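Homework help thread (please don't just give me the answer)

Our assignment gives two proteins as sequence + structure token strings and asks us to describe the second one. The first is just a warm-up. Here they are:
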Amino acid sequence: MTAWIRRWWSAGIPAVGAVALIATWGQKLPGVLVVLVGLVLVGVVLAAVHHAEVVAHRVGEPFGSLLLAVAVTVIEVGLIITLMVSGGGKDTSTLARDTVFAAVMITVNGIAGLAVLLGSLRFRLPRFNSEGAGAALAVVAALATLTLVLPAFTTSRPGPQFSPSQLGFAAVASLILYVAFVLTQTVGHRDFFLPVSASGKSIQPDDEEDHVAPPSGRAAAISGGLLVVSLVAVVGLAKTVSPAIEAGVAAAGIPSSFVGVVIALLVLLPEGLAASRAALRERMQTSLNLAYGSAMASIGLTIPAIAIASIWLPGPLTLGLGSTQIVLLVLTVLVGILTVMPGRVTRLQGVLHLILLAAFVFLAINP
């Protein structure tokens, strides 16, 4: 009976989320329905985590982490473009920048910080491969600087904007960096991104302590399809409840850009939960793969897609960060470097990253 309930839950919740998305799309929801849709959203997030872990178990690391990061980012790009097209004009000119920056801060400080804290509380000094984590963080820092910091200092266009040629270069450079990293992660130096044992040795897929047999190809394919449905439902339902969130934000006197932070938190919940669960199984490398891989994909895939879409999107495209945001980004990178260098983490580092996330959220509310 328990297995049957689990199968129904894992398949039924994504279906419920899809039905709720279709039924509520474009509708203005009353308060009660907003709460119900919110509950469905949480259930779909949990289902997405389950199916992501099934697929990850089948394909092994680091492919599983890469799959979830890319899947969420592809849908995130679709959401940004949809909102920019529907909103149009100057009001959406900073949407891509705000969403990408929020994703970077949430993944590098929030997801990684929570995983570090949970892992160190349970295993005291969890280990990971500093070469893999350091390489990932370096690419994140380079991508963020090229696409989000430089526009604030270029002079070809007034304001923090790239000229068309500069935007094209940033898009191509971002894509090349992302592809180069993926090839390094999956082909060139795959061992750098595998979980590490307490002795510091990389754990191969066949060396897992629990020796749980991977799911069949059919089961993994079904979970892959349900994962896509779940992710679409997560993003779509987040967009559906965003007017209610926006109204609440406005009523509280908070800047409207904070709505993007709330939606980013909802969209990244599957990766956050997956990273936390991996940390609690002493798979800190998997957690960092998810955190840094998500940040990398959010920039390396989003910016090229937005650059292409900007040909027909209405209004300007503002990518340059403000001075406060640049300070937070620099501090995040510096702290991240000190976190990954030793190849092991303590609870202090987890708390430090979470405080940086709290600073980002606080300053987004009270700039």
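The one we have to describe:
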Amino acid sequence: MSTESSRRVPPWASWSTLVPILAAVLLGFTWGRDLPGWVVSGVALFLAGSVLAAVHHAEVVAHRVGEPFGSLVLAVAVTVIEVALIVTMMSSNGEKSATLARDTVFAAVMITCNGIAGLCLLLVALKRGLARFNADGAATVFGAIITLAGLTLVLPTFTTSQPGPEFNTTQLTNAALDSIVLYGLFIVAMTVRHRPDFLPVDAAHPAADYDDADYEDPRETGPAAGSAKNPAPGYDEHGYEGDRPTSRQALTSLVLLVLALITVVGLGKGVSPTLERGVDRAGLPHSVVGVAIALLVLLPESIAAVRAAHRDELQTSLNLALGSAMASIGLTIPTIAVATIWLSSPLILGLDASHMVLLALTVAAGSLTFVRGRATLVQGGVHLAVCFSYLVLAVSP
């Protein structure tokens, strides 16, 4: 055995294996207890470590199964975290959490469609001059996102059968069915019927489909360095570094991914009372809690999407961002609708006027961006401006 091989860290001793296991042990000691401040700090560190471990193991699984299945794995994983946190907090906080589902889902839509997508578009455009992606897939999923956002987050503000921005039982059932059916159709389209629409343009369509006669980038003399036809040095045809994981490695990562997600949910529940007390003491709107949950659960998506953009795999980045927004609405709303059977608190889903303006700006900007299949740094900057405005208004409405 060579010296280099002997110095390799065994898989069981790597940080990505140890952190979820230690976090699970910590969860067992802290579950259901009122934690002092210094313990909360330690829990928060393991919470962040579990999120990073989830990113690592999700990427291993994604590398094994390839696109677009890999993006789907991570999108569903983070949505499970989101739903679990919302349900647990609504069950323990009563009427105080009546708007938590709305705030979290809307935050997820704004952060994914504007923050993550805008940042990835900007990074690739700065590097390549022109950011190319598959317009067929991006436009399809974005159209489904804005439709569900309108049906579940805007429409309740204008219904009259219930006082306030709420659905009655029939309307909520309809919204839940619309969400789950459209999400199911999206899954079928992404993985079976129209899978090429969610692959990089070089792999799914010939370059002639995109007429760039009106734009020439002197830095771009051939296929993108990270494209399926010309992968970057050290990366495979999917844009992942190193050799493809074995089935055993992928299965191990899947188990550790599930464990990491469980610890994120459990530790997040332990940290949430401290977070809510901090929000109240700072005099911030309670909707900030929903923003914080969305930022936490979308951290794995954000890291994975930015890393993919750095490898010139913009399609993977957009699959992650838009797929996560679709999962957030398509899975959260039906789950919360079922949870209202035993939850005593009301469920307020309707957005206020300022948030509807931000959603309208997202629809306008996204429609001009995702239907073209290419973007400059201006489009990336526009989406980031909308996201930053949303975050500012969340703190100072």
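TA reply:
I won't write it for you, but here's a hint about the kind of observation we're looking for: Residues 130 and 311 are 15 Å apart (CA to CA).
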